[in-house]
Each structure stands twice: as C-alpha cells, then as structure tokens.
C-alpha cells in the first residue's frame, strides 16, 4: 500500500494557506480620514481643553537633549519616581549625552491638599513634574499621551529623540544611546512592534473597543505602550494627526492610528545571535548578561529596579 502521507501533507498546507488568505482578505484597516474630526469629538484629547497645574517650560531652554524620557505616572507614585531618579532616569548618566527626564501626572478625583503640597515640593526640588487637570485614569491614558506629545512639540523642539516609558520598566540607557546613534533622526519610531493587533469585542475585556469607536477588525502596526522611542519631530506630527483620528482609549493603538494617518511605519528592534526583541514586553527574571543586551524589560517593582541597577553597573565589564 502506498503511503497517504503526501496527500495529507498537501491537504494540510492547502488548508493553512486558505486560512491565511481568508484572514488577510477579511482584515481591514481604516481609511485615511481627509477631514478633521468634529470639534466636540476632538475636544476630549485637544491640549487646549486642559491646563497645566505644574509645568517645566524652561527644561529644554539653552540645551539640546539627545533624549527626553517621558514617564506617565499617577500622583501617589512618588516611590517609583524616586527609584527612577536613582536608576535609569538619573542625570549625567552618560558622558556627552544630555538626557532629560519628565513625569506626567493627571488629577485626582477629589482634592487632597496634603498631596498637592507634597507634589509641589517634589516638583520644586527636582524640576521634573508636569501635571494637567484631566482625571488620571486608565481610560484617559490616550489624553495623557497626547499631552506628552504636545508638551514635546511646544517646549522641547531642540531634542533629538524622545521615549515614552512606563514606570515599572527596566531601561538600559547606555545600550539605548548606542543603538540610537545609527538611527534616523526624522519620522523614526521603534519599540515592540505589534502587526496583528485586533480590537476586542467582548464588553468584559479590559481592552474592549466598541464597533462604534473602531469599526475595522485589524489595527495598523503599532508599538507597545510599555516603552517606545521616537525622533522628536514626530511629537508635532502625531499631535497634528490627532486632529483627524478619532480617539480610542488605548493609547498605543491610538499612536499607531496616527502613524497610519502619517504613513509612517514603526521599526522593529530585533537583533540576531542570539535572536532577541530589544524591547522585551514579556517579563524576564533578572539576569545580568541577558539584561545587558536589551533596551527594556517590563514588570518590576521600585525595589527590584534599584537592586538590578546596582548589579548591572558591573555588567558592561563582565558580559
Ligand atoms: C477623562 O478626563 C476627563 C477630564 O478630566 C473626565 O471628564 C473624564 O471623566 C475622564 N474619563 C475617564 C474614563 O476617566
């Protein structure tokens, strides 16, 4: 009897191929809007709807930062701010490369005078806090990201690169600075690129997105919000695009939609030998020589960050 294996294999390949074609064929991206959104829709994310409670308008005066670290945090998060100031956000970390650091905070639901006083003190001491008067919630992160873009476009046009990065992340600054030296200075954005993101239609999901807000079944390529790096010129372009692109409560997908509007593709940051994604959005247990060759790794407490940092200082010489 002849083997049936070739036939079975052929069928399997045929089925896989048709599924692939079917999926591609039925996946659609939004068309590029040609008109700005109605003003009552744009108002939600428009910078002119909110005012600064704390600002650092002179941070970039008389200086040209190579990189500005833009860190969304909530007000009560002073412990993670302290950890960042002592680790990857510290000043003068890399000789000859000016790196600036800024925390972005919204407003509490209810006024808390003690909190306001502490935050003002912290802002005076470190000069690294920006606060605006929108409610600081998970669903308002798109607003926060647009405020970050607008701040860069308004007050720090001299910078070369910017990075939006969450507070619970390990950032290998020396590796990043070296990596960026060979990268484009315009229309450049990199991070952990997601090319097959789709909206969740289950109303119980944390990432639920209604068809009304987003009717297509595929997202354009976007970079995970955990941490992404972009040439500073993009801040203004993304702010401009946001006038056309309807807001959705997922800030990283929203930035992807703005990039789609601008016809800019986020760049992968992969390296071979060994293969790795330099923006690691899975959690990895700390290992000195693994972390020495990543730009970010996600998911650490402040204490872990401080401990890892102390250890990693020696890594450059031993890995
Ligand atoms: C977002 O912020 C605005 C302005 O403060 C507020 O009115 C709204 O309730 C917030 N939305 C959510 C979902 O928290």
Automatic annotation (TrEMBL):
GO MF term (any one): N-acetyl-beta-D-glucosaminide beta-(1,3)-galactosyltransferase activity
One Pfam family this sequence matches: Galactosyl_T
Native source organism of the sequence: Silurus meridionalis
Subcellular location, principal: Golgi
GO BP annotations, alphabetical order: lipid metabolic process; protein O-linked glycosylation
Entry EC number(s): 2.4.1.-
InterPro entries: Glyco_trans_31, Nucleotide-diphossugar_trans
Segments traversing the membrane: none
Protein name according to UniProt: Hexosyltransferase
SUPFAM superfamilies: Nucleotide-diphospho-sugar transferases
Signal sequence range: 1-23
